Amino acid sequence: MLIDLIVARPMGLAGTVLGTAAFIVASPFTLLSGTFLQSGKRLVVYPAKFTFTRGLGDFPGYMEDYQIVEE
User: Which regions span the lipid bilayer (predicted)?
Assistant: First the structure.
């Protein structure tokens, strides 16, 4: 739990910020290709859920209840 608090949460926050920036830059291209929602989930939602909604020290299977839809 201590490693999660000191290492994983700050890295998750950095991943959320960087993912959001990448999503903003890539959004015109993802709109054209029809993958806007998928890229938003992968770059913004998943890192944010990892950082802010999972229990402290809970790592295994944090993305199990999400389905990735291939179109």
Answer: 12-32
How many residues would you count in the chain?
71
Dump pLDDT digits (tens) for 5-47. 999 999 999 999 999 999 999 999 999 999 999 999 999 999 9
- Structural domain including 38 reads 1-49
Residue 62 domain flag: no
Residue 64 located in a structural domain: no
CA dihedral 67, 64, 46, 55 (to 10 degrees): 150
**Number of separate domains in the chain:** 1
**φ and ψ of 55, to 5 deg:** -70, 150
CB 35 within 8 A of CB 69: no
